[in-house]
Write a structure and sequence with these properties.
single chain; 415 residues; alpha/beta; Rossmann fold; 6-stranded parallel beta sheet; 14 strands; 38% helix; 14% strand; globular
Length: 415
């Protein structure tokens, strides 16, 4: 049977005994230590397998999965799905935050959490034969727990977005812990970015593609679009423009709201930010900004991020994997890089999709409305060029997860 373990983030601390002295209610939500009250209670789950291979005398290899944020869970669950159907593999997982919610939705699991909480999770983890990790957060957490506690287990790291793994790799280096045996990345640009910071890891980096993108090879995007347009009540001549930001920078949103008033093409607007920044207080500020500008918006969280992504005619982002989802769906995207509103991220200026010509980079928000009008025309010069570079640089063959699984199993066999 496969055992699937889900825990809220356990930050790596230099003083473990102090953690073990915490009150029981805090032990159950280790994320509390990091000041993240929004994270979920630590859980340990068992995922039943229909295979009787262990009863036949052949021992399964145990893979420990580490996941925390939505991007991480969405990148790992397609890989886990393939592993679940592999008779030679059993799984455990340590998960927190929205990743816990996502994975519980994907898999049927039995709660086997130790009664004393996450700090006693070693009782059910056993000794893994390999670690499968996606460190999509900059905060210290369960990925360091796994690396420190199981240094002899080969680690396969999946990077779900450009530079997302750099913080984790740096922490491993600082603590003199083993680096991943393999690092699976989106494309050549993602590899270059890691090599720039960690040249010693070049031979360990494999271009597999992002596992979460496999679904776009078979998704009936047009079918979803037709149904969701009906549900949203969009008129036949109305386009949909969606803003899907990593977070809602308030000054940028105020400028965005004003620019939306200048768009000439008939459209509706959908708005959403990363769940981490979608607090109740900020939600009220977002509503106030758009209400003051006379802009009504569709809440992407309520309508469903995937639905909005499929139905959108243009997707606007700052930094978000949703931009890559749109590119895989061959939808035009705008990356806002105006320095007056967006602080350039190190090594991501311009963002790789812009650098590769697969997305528009907008460095002056005063041109936002005109750019939107151009991209809402499917036959515009801009759209034709974008589609060409999307096809060239972001192929969708549905085999990214399979490539990760093959790498993981090869490391298990070698170990």
């Amino acid at each position: 049977r496969a055992i699937f373990v889900i825990l809220p983030i356990r930050p790596m601390t230099e003083h473990p005994p102090q953690l073990r002295d915490l009150p029981p209610e805090e032990k159950k939500r280790l994320a509390y230590i990091e000041g993240r009250e929004d994270l979920f209670e630590t859980k340990v789950f068992e995922m039943e397998s229909s295979s009787d291979i262990e009863e036949q005398g052949q021992e399964k290899k145990n893979v420990l999965v580490i996941s925390r944020d939505p991007g991480s869970a969405n990148a790992l669950w397609p890989v886990m799905e393939l592993l679940y159907h592999d008779d030679t593999i059993a799984m455990k997982a340590i998960v927190d935050g929205r990743a816990e919610e996502i994975l519980q939705d994907k898999f049927t699991m039995k709660d086997i959490t130790p009664k004393d909480g996450a700090l006693e999770a070693e009782q059910v983890l056993g000794t893994p034969d390999a670690l499968l990790i996606d460190s999509s957060t900059s905060e210290r957490g369960i990925e360091m727990y796994a690396a420190a506690n199981y240094p002899d287990a080969p680690m396969v790291l999946v990077e779900d977005y450009y530079t997302a793994s750099h913080g984790f790799l740096q922490r491993l280096k600082e603590r003199k812990l083993p680096h991943p045996k393999k690092i699976c990345v989106i494309d050549s640009e993602a590899k270059k970015l890691i090599v720039k910071e960690f040249p010693e890891l070049e031979d360990r980096i494999e271009i597999t593609g992002q596992p979460a993108f496999d679904r776009f090879a078979t998704e009936d995007t047009e079918g979803i679009k037709t149904e969701v347009r009906k549900e949203l009540g969009l008129a036949p001549d109305e386009k949909l423009v969606a803003f899907m930001g990593a977070q809602g920078e308030l000054a940028l949103l105020e400028k965005l709201a004003g620019e939306l008033k200048k768009v000439k093409t008939k459209f509706r607007f959908a708005f959403g930010v990363h769940p981490r920044y979608n607090t109740e207080v900020l939600q009220q500020r977002y509503k106030e900004i758009f209400r003051n500008a006379g802009i009504e918006y569709i809440d992407t969280e309520r309508a469903g991020v995937n639905n909005i992504g499929a139905v959108s005619d243009v997707v606007v982002i700052v930094v978000s994997a949703e931009g890559l989802h749109a590119i895989c769906r061959r939808k035009p995207t705008i990356h806002i890089i105006d320095p007056k509103f967006v602080k350039a991220q190190r090594d991501l200026n311009p963002p790789p999709p812009v650098k590769l010509g697969a997305s528009m980079g907008l460095d002056d928000m005063n041109g936002f409305a005109t750019t939107i009008d151009h991209l809402l025309d499917p036959e515009s010069v801009e759209n034709i060029e974008l589609r060409k570079h999307m096809e060239e640089n972001y192929p969708v063959d549905g085999k990214n997860s399979e490539r990760v699984v093959n790498i993981l199993k090869a490391e298990i066999a070698e170990n």
